[in-house]
Amino acid sequence: MGRLIFLVIVLLTFNENALAVDHDLAYQLKQKGKILSLEKIIKISKKTQRGRILEIELEIEDNIFIYEMEILDEKNIVWKIKINATTGQLIEREID
């Protein structure tokens, strides 16, 4: 049973190009100045897409730290936003 749980966790945290970052590592990266604070990223996302944030994940894609967000707009459309966690630059904005 322990192996099955571990496998499920591994499958949930990996996709073909991205690796999810846990809370402790995110904190260390923020403290070292390698990524922007979540507060700054939320401000940037609000300028990009209005709505209610449903989910935020910090991932590594192609050796770049990326905040991936899902935002629900006033028309009940879910948007996927990707922001470079180091620079704050918008990478992607699309309907999810």
Cα shape: elongated
Task: Specify the helix fraction band.
Answer: 25-40%
| Total helical elements | 3
In the sheet with the most strands, the strands line up as: 1-2-3-4-5
Q: Provide the number of structural domains.
A: 1
Total strand segments: 5
**First and last CA, distance:** 34 Å
Please tell me the overall pLDDT. Answer: 81
Please summarize what this structure is.
With about 100 residues, the chain is α+β, with helices and mostly antiparallel strands. The chain has helices spanning about 1-15, 25-30, 40-50; strands spanning about 20, 50-60, 65-70, 80-85, 90-95.
Description:
It is elongated and about 40 Å long. The termini are far apart. The longest helix has 12 residues. It has a single domain, classed as Nuclear Transport Factor 2, Chain: A, CATH 3.10.450.40. The protein is an alpha+beta fold and 96 residues long. It has a five-stranded antiparallel β-sheet with strand order 1-2-3-4-5, covered by helices on one side.
